[in-house]
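[User] At your convenience, examine this fold.
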Amino acid sequence: MPSSSVFRSARFWSSLVFVIISLASAFYWIFGRGEPVSTVLAVRGDAAEVVYATGAVEPVRWAKVVPIQRARLIYLCECEGKAVHAGDILAQQDGSQQKAHLDELLARHDQLERDVQRLNNLLDRNAATVAAVDQAVTSMKEIDARIVAAQDVLNDLVLRSPMDGVVLREDFSVGEIIGSGDVVFWVGQPSPLRIVADINEEDVGRIKIDDVVLLRHEGFGDESLSANVSSITPKGDPVTKTFRVYLALPETTPLRIGMSVEANIIIKEKKNALLVPAEALVGQSVFVIENSRLLRRPITTGIRGTTMVEVLTGLEVGDEIISPTKPAYKEGLRVFRAEATKP
């Protein structure tokens, strides 16, 4: 056989062997190693069990100013943000019809008063009867009562501050028609402030007065905001299945009235606890890797936070576990480490 033919044959078989090895390596790389998994290390840190809630910031002392009658606004103090005293006039509704009715009653009162005086004079001369005088007096008393009622109606058209404080917010404008369902003013004292939060009924039994609360608001990023549980309403709402909880804010809080916040009420705390991610748990166990396969390891847990869980037994510091777990993960599944991180 010519040497060139031998050379081509040898090169062919070498290439074929290389392709077979490459395919075998690729097949093993894709299928033989198993499922890629991410792992984390069990670490020590501070654990806290919390009750989550949302709430809104409000003054401890405040009140709404709401009209009793439906009528048009003819005066508005335009005093938003200004200090006011109890009884100060904040707004007035149109009372022209009520004023005309009162004037009519006052005129009727004057006429009846003159009639009573005239009848008394006639009675002194025996020209009138006692019954006539009594009837006129009774009519005048009826008018007096109607006058008082009409004056009360007029007074109700004047909206006054219910307390000393600051006009926190002012809605509506002169010319608008307002009624009993419309809050025209919020009046209160700018400090101290508190948060009113609703807690699910299954969690309220775990909360105690003076529990520390960690707060979060998008406007303050990672800034540390805190409060304390000051009181818990004795009666819950059976419809929403919640209880109202009041959280006292410190005098230095940057939060402002009306802001909505997320609150984490710390009900249990432990230092230097062994922690793993909550997403690593499968019931009361975790997955570890042994001989390139998944092995379920039972554990007992303690404090459960929103992202981390305390491990009491079953793991040691630095133990490598699978996180996050997936429904497809089963004991004995062949896997390989995609990455290992510290939570």
Notes: Residues 1-32 form one domain. The CA atoms of residues 185 and 298 lie 60 Å apart. Residues 24-31 have pLDDT under 50 and may be disordered.
